[in-house]
Amino acid sequence: MNKQDLRVLKTQKALMQAFTDLLKTKEFDRITVQDLCDVAFIQRSTFYRHYNDKYHLLASATKTALEHIKQAQISEQHAQNHRLRLEQYIDNLLTFVCENKAIIQHVISHNLHDEVTTIIYKQVYQTVYQQTLADMRAGKQLDINLNIYSHFLAGGLISIIINWTYASDNLQSVESVKSNIVALMDSARKAHLK
């Protein structure tokens, strides 16, 4: 990695940290680019070299977090077993939501629900679609349309996670929610992929 790449990474990391810190104390619509620059100790021109605006930063932060979830290390045993791989993916996703619950609630409740949900939805949809496509290439047959199947599972998963995030009592543990989601997704897979 060259010196330029390292500076870019340090700047982006500083901006992401500033963004996270500011969201803990300020509503998203009240955060300005100048606020981000002040907390990250960078110039506005530096911010604009990396991002178009704070919405671009939000999208980037969400995508980065989801990529970390998706690429979380999966053991060789899990890679060969669909249910274990699904459990690990759902566990990573729910753990991320749990660890960042206050920020997620804050961002979603302040007119960013559509933007954040769309980013998460696309990621989950792609994961379901690609895994199902891999199963089909391995000889399995899907008895319904792949796009409809993927949209249905992604939409259901996102809805469950959002409702769980906002549940005032939030009595269900990560493990409980994970086992319910995995059971539903596994049932859909067994019913339609043979």
Automatic annotation (TrEMBL):
Keyword check for Cytoplasm: no
Keyword set, alphabetical order: DNA-binding, Membrane, Transmembrane, Transmembrane helix
Molecular function terms, GO-annotated: DNA binding
TM region(s), chain numbering: 146-166
PANTHER family reported in the protein's UniProt record: ACREF/ENVCD OPERON REPRESSOR-RELATED (PTHR43479), TETR-FAMILY TRANSCRIPTIONAL REGULATOR (PTHR43479:SF7)
Species of origin: Staphylococcus chromogenes (Staphylococcus hyicus subsp. chromogenes)
Residue stretches making up the HTH tetR-type domain: 9-69
Name this polypeptide is given: TetR/AcrR family transcriptional regulator
Residues in the DNA-binding region annotation: 32-51
Endpoints of the signal sequence: none
Taxonomy, superkingdom: Bacteria
